[in-house]
Amino acid sequence: MRITADRERCASAGMCALTAPGVFDQDDEDGRVVVLNGEPVGGDAADAVDLCPSGALSAADG
Ligand code: SF4
Fold it and tell me: Which residue out of 3, 6, 24, 54 has the highest number of ligand 1 atoms within 8 Å of its CB and is therefore the one to mutate?
């Protein structure tokens, strides 16, 4: 799975970092998403993509 994040759309809600803390973090300045691991294994990252309230996260196969 390949994860991408649109930081312009991120609303700093933090659901991604709570759901998949090894994959996502929030930056110290404005709380927007930072992708720590763009090619994660396992379901947490996919759950985080689904839970993001702003639709800022995308997951693609590969
Ligand atoms: S869950 Fe979505 S809106 Fe919230 S910090 Fe993560 S990417 Fe941003």
Answer: 54
